[in-house]
Amino acid sequence: MEYEAVIYERDGAVARITLNRPEKRNAQNSQMISELDDAMRRAARDDEVNVIVLGGAGSSFSSGHDHKEVMRDPVVSGLRSEMTTRVALEREMYLEKCLAIRDIPKPTIAMVQGPCIAAGVMLAAMCDLIAASDDAVFRDPTLDMGGGGAAAVEVLYHPWDFGARRAKRFLFFGEELTAAEALELGFVSWVFPRDELEARTMELAHTLASRPPGPIRMVKRSINQTLDRMGQRDSFEYHFVMHCAHAVVRGMVERGWGRIIAISSDAGRIGVPELSTYAAGKAGAAGFLRSLAKEVGQSGVTCNVVSLGLIPGPWMAEETRERRARQFPVGRVGVPQDVPGAVVWLASDEASWVTGQTISVNGGYLII
User: Fold this and answer.
1) Would you say 244 and 83 are in contact if contact means Cβ atoms under 8 Å apart?
2) 359 and 297 in one domain?
3) Is residue 306 within 8 Å of residue 343, measured between CB atoms?
4) Considering the entire predicted model, what is its pTM?
5) What amino acid positions are annotated as catalytic residues?
6) Can you list the residues of the chain whose pLDDT is less than 70?
7) For an engineered disulfide with 142, which of 9, 152, 219, 328 has Cβ 3.0 to 4.6 Å away?
8) Who's near 163: CB < 8 A, 6+ residues apart?
9) pLDDT in tens, 154-202
10) Domain count, the chain
């Protein structure tokens, strides 16, 4: 992919990715989000890269999403005009691409200068470490942008990074957080004078890149898994379900028709040893939709969950795949093509009398 909205550079074992719309204060349009995702994956695949630095050109790290340009894009605005495609678009562009940065095995450093607003803060929060200039300010006024009742915040990282009460204050009032305050909270890792930010951040990146990459990646994975066992990732997923439902349900009720379908996991139905928080998050999302189904059913809106069994990726060894297949009455594990049929049916008029249900697509696993 050729890049315009981002710059990709290699400096030894450090990949440097720069948001490159300085005239728009690096507001994130669809092109930038897609190019950033590609650049991050490129750095993750490069065996010569040990550390990734994410920065912004010009006076600001990022001023958030470029909503005006998004609405001028005929493809994107068309997708946003329909409730079902809007949810899919927001999930892919805002939730999944952010979590992909969090999940990169290599350490990432956000280099933040000047204003860092809304989705800009969200982007920085996905990195492992944040180096900020002394004039950096962080602000998330998305509750003021909610129009139509939308919850506005796609990835609710705030209570994890700030603590619950400080997160509430930050979001309720849309207050600015200075670099010094962010450092005190532990959200920012270092604060440097503005004219030293780039040099000091790259010095740190090269120092980190010179350390043994294997143990560093193991530590990152262990810390992220610890957070996940405490419920972090599931809280992101659960909040996004609420965010999307809140964003679309009013329009559905006004039109007298709607289908809300969440994709979940059978872990929330049967429990999984050592994955209690994951199972709880999936069960919580199903419980939320059952309650919502009772609220909006008389308005022609149905709410259901498609709960998936084992659908392994290419990472699963063939021997393991064959062993697991014997546990299913249909004699095989799942494939992605098994899922759409249930979703399409639940979205159809034929399923208009089905609501508040969790339908498992699992090869009959739960009947054993």
Assistant:
1) no
2) yes
3) yes
4) 0.74
5) 278
6) 70-89, 91, 145-153, 274-275, 277, 315, 368
7) 152
8) 185
9) 788 999 999 999 999 999 999 999 999 999 999 999 999 999 999 999 9
10) 2
